Amino acid sequence: MTKLLENLPMRKSSLRQLLLPAALFAAGTASAWDYTGHRMVNQLALAALPADFPAFVREPANAERIAFLAGEADRWRNVPDLIMKQSGGSWTDHFCDLEQIPDAGLDLAKVPSLRYDFILQFAAGRATHPEKFPAIDPAKNADHSAQWPGFAPWAISEYYARLKSGFSYLKVFEELGTAAEVTNARANIVYVMGVMGHYVGDCAQPLHTTVHHNGWIGPNPNEYTKWTGFHSWIDGGFVAKARIKVGDMMPRVVPAQAITLPPQADGRDPFFVAIMNYLIEQNKLVEPLYALEKKGVFKADVAATSTEGQEFIKARLLTGGQMLASIWITAWKNAGPDNYLRGQLIKRAAGGAESGKTK
Q1: For the stretch 214-240, what's the b/e string if a residue is b when 16 or more beta carbons lie within 10 angstroms of its beta carbon?
Q2: 198's torsion region: left (phi>0), alpha (psi -120 to 50) or beta?
């Protein structure tokens, strides 16, 4: 808390007095309210699904689990294990600072769809252009993640592939499996749907797509806020103070559609390209968000009446929910049957028939 208060801007005493209670509120409630926002994204996505989407996901227990799992990726970050922090619990899967990619000499329109191909290219580019990147404090980089721009597009694409796999083997278990296998396959789908929602929701928030994620850095001719608590306030504090609820947005939900995935001339995965385009569109809202903050629409004392501030946040939550529903639908529609599993289950059934014969 002390560190947060030390970072409050000192230009005007009145501004500091206004932001002080906001900072205290955000510091004390950030995790809980961030979870609330992620729940809303997953709930909005469920509401956007078409009527013919597999009905089991809407069963009350499954719908609640999908909403609960929206917070799972943040819970992974709460453990001290560095291996966990650098892998599944890594903060780097939650964002992508898009400005760093061209700084490393890479073209945003040609970024490779395979995570490790990108890692190699970015590392080489960063080494070639060290002047474009800030120095890393080893004391704040125990998990060795500070040198990366973030991997959110790859994380989302990987979860999409897992979800496609889940629907693929569910189809076969529903045809040839046991009731228990079908139940377990559906549970796996619910899990992946819920967890992946976190990353899709993250990227609907423009501050997850930019180097300016915790206040404006570098040249600042428009004098945007440098307050390091800005991100936390937008993610959760303002949502709480303005009392934004999922029911406020439900009337604005429209049925989602599958994402069109045209083949790419360069051979990149078309789903990954769609996700990169999604992040690029959200990144366009970074400066408008800072301009709104400068205008004062996100101040704690106007949160309940700030139409512009509330509408910006609601639009981001709705965008995240709509995109997440579209991803779910795309995985479902593009999942062919798992033919290897089908062959194994046919052999299993034949073996059972053989063992039942009278010798």
Answers
A1: bbbeeeeeeebbbbbbbbbbbbbbbbb
A2: alpha
Distance CA 279, CA 271 (A): 13
How far is C-alpha 278 from the chain's CA centre? 11
- The domain locations on the chain are 30-97+157-264+274-352
pTM of the model: 0.89
By CB neighbour count within 10 A (0-12 exposed, 13-18 middle, 19+ buried), where does 40 fall?
buried
Side chain identity at residue 14, one-letter code: S
Question: Hey, how many other C-beta atoms are within 10 angstroms of the C-beta on 164?
Answer: 18
Q: Is 267 left (phi over 0), alpha (psi -120 to 50) or beta?
A: left
* pLDDT, tens digit (0-9, with 9 covering 90-100), for 233-274: 999 899 999 999 999 999 999 999 999 999 999 999 999 999
Q: What is the pLDDT of residues 324-359, one digit of tens each?
A: 999 999 999 999 999 999 999 999 999 976 544 544
Task: Report the chain's terminal Cα–Cα distance, integer Å.
Answer: 77
Tokens of 115: 């995570």
Fold classified for 30-97+157-264+274-352? P1 Nuclease (1.10.575)
**What number of CA atoms fall less than 13 Å from residue 33's CA on the CB side?**
21
What are the pLDDT digits (tens) for 170-195? 999 999 999 999 999 999 999 999 99
DSSP states of 75-106 as a string?
Answer: HGGGS--HHHHHTTT-GGGG---TTHHHHTT-
Nearest CA to 70 out of 45, 88, 95 is that of: 45
By the 8 A CB rule, do 74 and 128 touch? Answer: no
How many helices and strands, by DSSP H and E, does the chain display?
Answer: 16, 0
Neighbours of 73 (CB within 10 A): 24
Report how far residue 39's alpha carbon sits from residue 57's, in angstroms, rounded to the nearest whole number: 15
Question: How many C-beta atoms surround the C-beta of residue 352 within 10 A?
Answer: 9
